[in-house]
Amino acid sequence: MSVAPDPADNDAGVEHPTRNRLLAAILAMLVLYTCAVAAVLIVPLLLAILLSLMLAPAVRLLCRWHLPRVLAALLVLLCALLVTGSMLASLVAPARVWMAQLPKSVDRIELALSDLRRPLSAASHAGEQIARLATIGDASTSRQVVDAGPSRVSQLLNATPAVLVSMVATLFLVFIFLLHGDALLRKFVELAPALRMKKDIVIATRSAQHELSRYIITIAAINATLGLLTAAALWFLGVDDPLLWGGVVAVLNFAPFVGPMLAVLLLVVVGFSRFATPWAALGVPGVFLVLHLLEGQLVTPLIVGRRLALDPVMVFLALMLFGWLWGVTGLLLAMPLLTCVRIVAERVPAWSALAKVLGA
Fold it and tell me: What is the band of 74 on the pLDDT scale with cuts at 50, 70, 90?
């Protein structure tokens, strides 16, 4: 007597693409939620990974010179801290001086835009009258809320310990990665079941680490050169403290699209703080725009190459995503992280579609 097969048994071994996609979407949302909630832990970890990739070649070079790995990692980290700290310390005083001159810059910008504001004066006056009528009844309440809120100084003091703890944690993680990165790789290799897989893991990890470190160092060198050229051009134009604005431009250039836009807006204010005429003031951001176009269209594609070029739409989406998750730090991390994902995806056969999507 034959028994008819149960349809449920046949469905048990069949994959359901819709269900798998739904599970993948749920997993992606959970990962994003975790990244947003655990930003205090994830951001220092990602920064430490990127910094360790940049400093790892120097540690390997010192180890080849028969220096113990502990001393090599400590020496490289201390040199990096010394260079970064000296640069930041040299920019603090000019930044304070410029902040004191900021009201004068704003007044000059308002004076230059006065002709454009005159046609809108009637509409602006009407809007002020409407806003004044709408806030008459709530004037006392609004005054109580403003008086009860904490001052900017107290907010800054409250945020300082968290920033210091994050910086210390990042530096400690960088030292740990520089010291025990190779040992951690060997543990992953030992967990691989087959010899062929062990070799693939070692080759892929070494090549990916080499390309990532080379990419990050190259981008940092390009941005530093852009900052120095911008500082030289501003010095030629007679702008005060050109090294300050060159350093700001170099840092902001790590965030594509958003960083150069912020640099242009900032240099507009800098130009009006130095020059009284609008055309002379607008020459300050104009010089940066010319240098940025040369860097973005010629220098970076020529040095970095087409193989590591990223799709502009993916870059913009990554900036929106990481900026929403982690703010300014996310904007600066978006480009290096997206490049890391593409390099790893090129070496994992199952991720070949992701590599094609991210590529230019």
Answer: very high
